[in-house]
Write a sequence for this structure.
């Protein structure tokens, strides 16, 4: 990983204040409070790498996601922090690799079982400390105790399900029995039997935006789609009826998801907040091939792997940021980016302090502004409960204890270690471990050093450093 570098500071509030002061005659008084932009982070659930029109899907209708990309910057090498729900979300919300965030694997969906440790600092806590109203709407899956539910992790307001998935109409945990009702507002169980959960999410989000339109807000809008159960709207099931099963079910659910993204964006537009609101979108992990997902339906496009796998199809996903009038629009970026990068990116764009200097993410602001800027990442690490791990440096990627949930064949040797050069073989078809033992050894050493560093306390100097916009 690169050492910390001084970051270019962009403070929208300061820039706007400067404009006011420069106006001849001082015709307007400066605003009473800092003009921090609002932030909305939209997470989709189990949306495959190629499962949006703007990511290459030819058979999907996704105008809202595509429209967000058209009004922002879309990454073509955006990585989730993990190939499965909880650690992916922990990485996103803390800016730390999931192992360091205390969530190397999925947390329990059972009431009373804790999840992400409370000493972890979330984006919500960071923005709340800067005066933002903070809201969680949708899926949580990061703990089911008062301390580890959203209100304990920096969210003023929370509405949604605490476990990994629900039936969208009964709001019961969707797993083997005994099934349990799972719908909570601010830690208190609430009941909306028969109401389609994604519609409840848009209603809740619209109300949150309306209530906080006059102050900076942060909304974490964690959609539970297209995660199973596939419960698409009838109009979309009709629309896709000629697609093969189970693609038809999945496609219809992706378009149902896209409609709710559109509903949220409409609420932002109706309040005239679009140019004051940074909107980030990403999927949490690759498409599912589980039995509850009918064995598939999603697509990783050219990539191997799916949910649970550290092949590209499990972690290389849709990821984009939009802030019309402030960031480039209709742009794509091929630089490597990572979900942990959102926290420092948001901090820089909002002109707020990182509360925790000791994070793994790097600000993407320079990359977002310039296609010529280098990726801030020299090395990326993944570590999943159960033993699978991966290291990427440049175009080389090494996976250990390999899982291929997309059904590909692996030799015993390939299951142990799989080396790819993504510039030559982005589909990770053939391991180059035999041909390039020196690369294998280099990447293994990076992995060893990283794992060893996780087990040692940080030097006091490092723990006191502030990365980011204080310098
Ligand atoms: Ca997921």
């Amino acid at each position: 990983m690169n050492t910390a570098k001084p970051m270019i500071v962009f403070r929208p509030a300061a820039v706007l204040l400067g404009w006011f002061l420069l106006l001849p005659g001082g015709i307007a008084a400066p605003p009473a409070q800092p003009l921090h932009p609002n932030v909305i982070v939209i997470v989709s659930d189990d949306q495959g790498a190629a499962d949006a029109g703007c990511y290459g899907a030819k058979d999907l209708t996704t105008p809202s996601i595509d429209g967000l990309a058209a009004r922002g910057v879309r990454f073509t090498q955006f990585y989730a922090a993990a190939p499965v729900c909880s650690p992916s979300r922990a990485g996103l919300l803390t800016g730390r690799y999931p192992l360091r965030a205390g969530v190397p694997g999925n947390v329990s969906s059972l009431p009373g079982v804790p999840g992400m440790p409370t000493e972890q600092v979330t984006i919500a806590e960071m923005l709340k400390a800067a005066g933002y109203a903070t809201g969680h709407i949708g899926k949580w899956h990061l703990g089911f105790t008062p301390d580890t539910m959203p209100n304990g992790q920096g969210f003023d307001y929370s509405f949604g399900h605490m476990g990994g998935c629900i039936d969208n109409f009964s709001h019961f945990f969707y797993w083997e029995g005994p099934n349990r009702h799972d719908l909570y507002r601010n830690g208190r169980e609430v009941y909306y039997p028969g109401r389609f959960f994604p519609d409840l999410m848009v209603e809740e989000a619209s109300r949150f935006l309306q209530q906080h339109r006059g102050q900076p807000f942060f909304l974490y809008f964690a959609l539970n789609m297209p995660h199973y159960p596939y419960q698409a709207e009838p109009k979309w099931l009709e629309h896709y009826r000629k697609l093969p099963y189970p693609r038809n079910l999945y496609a219809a659910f992706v378009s149902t998801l896209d409609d709710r993204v559109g509903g949220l964006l409409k609420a932002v537009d109706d309040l005239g907040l679009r140019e004051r609101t940074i909107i980030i979108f990403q999927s949490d992990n690759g498409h599912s091939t589980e039995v509850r997902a009918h064995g598939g339906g999603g697509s990783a496009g050219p990539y191997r792997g799916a949910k649970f796998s550290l092949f590209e199809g499990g972690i290389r996903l849709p990821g984009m940021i939009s802030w019309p009038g402030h960031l480039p629009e209709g742009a794509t970026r091929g630089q490597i980016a990572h979900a942990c990068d959102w926290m420092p990116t948001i901090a820089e764009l909002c002109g707020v302090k990182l509360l925790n200097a000791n994070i793994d993410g790097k600000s993407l602001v320079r990359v977002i502004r310039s296609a010529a800027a280098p990726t801030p990442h020299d090395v990326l690490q993944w570590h999943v409960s159960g033993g699978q791990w991966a290291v990427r440096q440049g175009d080389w990627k090494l996976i250990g204890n390999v899982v291929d949930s997309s059904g590909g064949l692996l030799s015993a040797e390939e299951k142990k270690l799989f080396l790819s050069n993504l510039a030559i073989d982005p589909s990770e078809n053939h391991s180059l471990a035999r041909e390039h033992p020196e690369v294998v050894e280099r990447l293994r050493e990076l992995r060893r050093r990283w794992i060893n560093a996780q087990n040692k306390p940080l030097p006091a100097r490092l723990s006191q450093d502030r990365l980011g916009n204080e310098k």
Notes: The first strand starts at residue 38 and ends at 44. The radius of gyration is 21 Å.
